[in-house]
Amino acid sequence: MSIMVIRKFTNYTLCLLAVSMEICVAYPQYQLLIPNAETVPHPCKPNYMWKGVGHQRNNGGGERNPFGRAFASAGKVFASRSIVPLVQIPTCANKTDQLEWVNCSYTDFKCDAANKPDTMNVTVRLPVTTVPANATTYMCMTFDLPSDKEYHLIAFEPVIDNANIMHHILLIGCQAVTHEVYKPYACGMTAGHNCSGILGAWSVGLSGLCYDEKAGFRIGQKGFKKAAIQVHWNNPELHSNYTDSSGIIMYYTETLRQYDAGVLVTGQTILNIPPQKESVAIEGGCPIECTAAIMNGPVYVTAVINHMHYLGIAQKTSVIDIGGYEKTLAYDKVYSYDSPVVHSLRDIFHK
Ligand SMILES: *[C@@H]1O[C@H](CO)[C@@H](O)[C@H](O)[C@H]1NC(C)=O
Ligand SMILES: *[C@@H]1O[C@H](CO)[C@@H](O)[C@H](O)[C@H]1NC(C)=O
Ligand SMILES: *[C@@H]1O[C@H](CO)[C@@H](O)[C@H](O)[C@H]1NC(C)=O
Ligand SMILES: *[C@@H]1O[C@H](CO)[C@@H](O)[C@H](O)[C@H]1NC(C)=O
Ligand SMILES: *[C@@H]1O[C@H](CO)[C@@H](O)[C@H](O)[C@H]1NC(C)=O
Ligand SMILES: *[C@@H]1O[C@H](CO)[C@@H](O)[C@H](O)[C@H]1NC(C)=O
């Protein structure tokens, strides 16, 4: 799935997007050969295991880590430290060792516009809410946006309360809401039929989003007056005593910017992964009939985020114009769920 932040302009048609994704799974039989290999903790995420013990990626596949290289060169036999002489033996790997396998660096939220004197902010958080002992839970809460005037929403920052279970947060504009505001409710992958305008998205590894300086999402009198946050909790070990009160800080201004921003989510969400394959490419997108139906004028693409879960290893998002010319917008040759890349673009697409 790709999340594109776009700003709207005047008149043209554009054919958009092929998303491809390759999927690869670890060979779990190797885990059986290595003592305690199924209990290697993920160094960045307390509630997760490092399943691909020999690999850079948490779920295996792709490049090997130092332990994986040693294991392979020893003929994929684990006998003792003398046969696998490197320090990165999973059973004794400590945090420092494992941090060499994965980049856990989280950057601070930097957004000049958020600190400007005419920028206001509002924080919306779930009240302290029990996290159910379910592997996956989507929890939503609707709330009122500032609506006394017209505003542009220009940045968005997460407030993470319980990092053990937090997977992603979406901020979604609503046309109308039927749920009581400020009251969390279990929801599906959408917050409700009247809430569908994505205004911001956060997932593990991002520090927040600072929108293109020429554009903002319209909220208030001529825009969204209500919104919902949707948090996705992962609780794979089914702990029953977690709570969470995560949320977001929104930055907005009444100094309206030149363009209105929007988000296009495109790609493929129904995946058939055949067995016994090392990788598989899956495509999805919004073809010309689709863009014609949803865009009534030219669009500038200002940022693209590729998004998959732990099985995804590479992803590309591109735009194909009416003449068949393909321009790559965002290519993560090595996709890592834990370090999403915001591809900021300066190019303008028009015809
Ligand atoms: C953890 O790793 C560091 C760096 O590799 C090493 O100096 C330290 O001795 C290790 N600790 C244990 C308990 O293995
Ligand atoms: C880890 O990520 C940070 C921030 O994105 C980057 O500056 C750094 O170079 C990365 N380190 C490695 C080893 O990839
Ligand atoms: C939000 O706005 C208040 C009042 O202007 C300010 O004191 C505070 O620092 C801002 N918070 C953030 C996170 O920028
Ligand atoms: C948790 O799982 C149970 C059993 O599958 C289900 O009945 C319940 O609705 C789930 N709770 C939430 C909040 O999703
Ligand atoms: C959407 O909003 C309309 C108008 O307020 C309301 O009648 C309808 O029930 C809402 N639909 C849902 C699914 O919330
Ligand atoms: C929460 O539950 C887990 C087991 O499900 C237990 O190990 C942990 O100590 C509990 N934490 C608290 C604060 O009760």
UniProtKB/TrEMBL annotation:
Coiled coil: none annotated. Residues 123-239 form the Copper type II ascorbate-dependent monooxygenase N-terminal domain. Residues 259-336 form the Copper type II ascorbate-dependent monooxygenase C-terminal domain. It comes from the Eukaryota. SUPFAM superfamilies: PHM/PNGase F. InterPro entries: Cu2_ascorb_mOase-like_C, Cu2_ascorb_mOase_N, Cu2_ascorb_mOase_N_sf, Cu2_monoox_C, DBH-like, PHM/PNGase_F_dom_sf, S-S_Temptin. Keywords: Disulfide bond, Glycoprotein, Signal. It holds the Pfam family Cu2_monooxygen. Residues 25-78 form the Temptin Cys/Cys disulfide domain. This is Peptidylglycine monooxygenase. It comes from Potamilus streckersoni.
